[in-house]
Amino acid sequence: MSAQELPNMARQIRGGSMLTARYSAASNRLLDGLPPRKRDRFLAECTLVDLALGNILYERGDLIRHVYFPVDSSVSMLAVIDRDRTALEVGMVGSEGMCGHALVLGSDVTPLRALVQGAGTSWRMKAPTFRRQLENVPALHHLLWRYVGVLFGQLAQAAACTRFHVVEQRLARWLLMTQDRSRADSFEVTQEFLAFMLGIRRVSVTIAAGSLQSRRLIRYRRGRIVILNRGRLEAAACSCYRTDLQIYQDGLGARSKFQRALLARATKEGTP
Amino acid sequence: MSAQELPNMARQIRGGSMLTARYSAASNRLLDGLPPRKRDRFLAECTLVDLALGNILYERGDLIRHVYFPVDSSVSMLAVIDRDRTALEVGMVGSEGMCGHALVLGSDVTPLRALVQGAGTSWRMKAPTFRRQLENVPALHHLLWRYVGVLFGQLAQAAACTRFHVVEQRLARWLLMTQDRSRADSFEVTQEFLAFMLGIRRVSVTIAAGSLQSRRLIRYRRGRIVILNRGRLEAAACSCYRTDLQIYQDGLGARSKFQRALLARATKEGTP
DNA sequence: CGCGCTATGTGCGTTGTCGGACAGACGACC
DNA sequence: GGTCGTCTGTCCGACAACGCACATAGCGCG
User: Fold this and answer.
1) Amino acid A258 CA to nucleotide D3 C1' distance, rounded Å
2) With an 8 Å Cβ cutoff, are B111 and A153 in contact?
3) B118 CA to D5 C1' distance (Å)
4) N or C: which end of chain A has fewer CB within 10 A?
C-alpha cells in the first residue's frame, strides 16, 4: 500500500460553499448521495491520496486500515484462489462506490484483494474514524448498506457472466465499465493486465481486442486503449453491462443521477 | 411460493426451557449465535414451514415478503442472466444461514433467485416483523451483518471456482455442501437438476458423477445420491469447499461450533 | 403386466479456451 | 541511432465442455 499522499485539501479549506465547489472537481458520486453538509463533514475527515496502477489496497484476509472513496481512480476486487496464484475480478469500484465494504458490515477483514487498475485520486479515511462515522451518522450507514447490496448483486452478475459469456463480450464490458469509472476515452492498460483481470490468457485478449479493433470500436497500442465508438461497443458487450447499471439504479438510483444518465444512454444506443 | 405451513410451534409453547428443548430439534445454527433468550423471542415471531423441492422463494427483483431461517432444508441462490433463461448457483443457504439478506441491508428487493434444492423445514418471518426486529435488537442486526459479509465472500469464491475448476471438482464440492446442510448421507437430486445448478450440461454431470461413483465415493440411482466416503470426496473436491468453511469461520466462527467441527474434520481427513 | 414417463448413458463432431514457444514491433533510454 | 525491455501477434496441438441425437433403464400406475 504505497499511496502517495497529496495535500489534505479537506483540512485546509474547511466549510462553506467554496469547499463544495472544490469538491465537485474531486467528488465521489456515492458520497454525493448524502445531504451536502453531512458529506462535507465526512470529507473533512478524509485525505485525498494518489493511487498508482498496480497498488494493492487490501490483500485477502488483511485487516482493513483505511477505506477509500475513489474520485477518478478505479479499483478491482479480486477473488483469489489456489493459494494466491489465480485470481478473478469479481467487481469494480470507481467514483460510484467505495473500497473496504467489510467495515460497513462490522467486520474488519476483507475477503477480496483490491487492486488499483486505473490510476487516479481517491478520498481515504482511517478505519477507526470511519467506524465512528458509521455509528454517528445513520444516513451514512444506510447509504453504504445499500451500496453493499449493490456490490453483492453486481458480484453475482459477474459470476454468471464469467461462466456464460465469451471473452470478446466480457472484454467489451470491462472496457465500458472502466471508461465509466475513469471518466476518459482512453486509459493505460496492457493486454497482460487485462488477461489477469478477466482470468484468461493474454493471447485470448489479443484475439478479442484485435477483433474489436478491426471493427473500429477501439484502438490500442502498447498499453493504451482508446474507445472509438461507445455505442457499438455497448452492443458488442454482453447484457451484463447494462444489468450492472440497472442493479446500481435499483439500489441507489434515487440518489445518483449519473448512473441514470448512463443507463438511459446505454438503453438508447445499444442494440441487444 | 407454495410453502405449506406447519403448526406454529413458537406461539403454542411460549417461553421457558421446554421451548428451548423443542427448538434444539428444529434449530437454525445462525440464530444460535444469539443469546438464547433473544433467539427464543425472535423465534416466537416465526412460523415453521415446509419447503418443497423446487419451490422458488424469491424471483430476481421480487419484493421480499418473508425471510427464512432453514432448519434442515437448503436453498440455492441463483444469479439469473439473459432474460431468465440461464442461471448459475452462486450460493447455498442451509441451517447455517438465512434467505432474504437484502432486508438486512435495508433493501426490500432481492438480486437473486432463491430456489429450494433440499426439501425440509424452515423458520419463516414476515418482512415487516423482521425489519422491526432488526431495529429493536442490535445483536441480531450485528449478527446478520456478519452473515451477509460471509455470504459475500462465499459468493466471490464461487465465482472464481466456477471459472477455474473442472466439473468433477465442482460437483464434489456441491455434494459436500449439500450434505452439510441437509444433515443426511443421502438426498434427492437428479442429474438434470444438478446440471442446472452448476451451469453445465446434464451429460457433463453424468460423466463426472460416473467417475465419482466408479471410485466408490458416491452411489446414485434415479434421483437419489448417497455419499459413501466423505473423506475421499473432500479430497476430490476443489479447495473451495474448505475455503468456504474458513470464510464462515472467520466471519461467524466465534459463534458457531458446528462449522468449526466441520472445518477441523475437513482439514484432518482431506488430502490436498 | 405392460405402458409411459422420466432419469441416465453413449456417440459424434464442434467450439472456446488453454499452454507453451517464438517472432515481430514499438518506444524509452543511453 | 542503436539497444534492450516490454508489449503485441501468430503458430501449434491439447482438452474440457458444448449441442444434438438417440439408446437404455428404473419405476409408478392403471
Assistant:
1) 49
2) yes
3) 57
4) C
**Total residue length of chain B:** 272
Q: Which residues of B touch A85 (CB under 8 A)?
A: none
Inter-chain residue contact B148 with A247, CB threshold 8 Å: no
* Strand order across the beta sheet in which A186-188 lies: A186-188, A224-227, A218-220
Buried/exposed code over B153-178 (b: 16+ C-beta within 10 A; e: otherwise): bbbbbbbbbbbbbebbbbbbbbbbbb
Give per-residue pLDDT as tens, B5-52. 333 333 333 333 344 444 456 789 999 999 999 999 999 999 999 999
Q: Of the segments A13-17, A155-159, B51-55, which one has the largest average pLDDT value?
A: A155-159
**How far is it, in rounded angstroms, from Cα B195 to Cα B116?**
15
Lowest mean pLDDT, pick from A97-101, B16-20, B172-176: B16-20
Residues forming a β-bridge with A120: A51
3-state SS, one letter per residue, for A80-145:
EECCCCEEEEEEEECCCCCECHHHHHCCCECCCEEEEEECEEEEEEEHHHHHHHHHHCHHHHHHHH
Q: Per residue in B80-98, pLDDT tens?
A: 987 667 899 999 999 999 9
Select the residue from A83, A85, A105, A142 to test the B interface by mutation, using most B Cβ atoms within 10 A.
A105
Spatial contact of B251 and B149, defined as CB atoms under 8 Å apart: yes
What residues in A contact B84, CB-CB < 8 Å? none
Q: Residues A103, A105, A109, A112: what is their CA dihedral angle, to the nearest 10 degrees?
A: -100
Q: What is the pTM of this model?
A: 0.86
In terms of DSSP bridges, do strands B120-126 and B186-188 run parallel, antiparallel, or are they unpaired?
A: unpaired
Q: Is the CB of A191 under 7 A from strand D?
A: yes
For residue B126, what are the β-bridge partners? B66
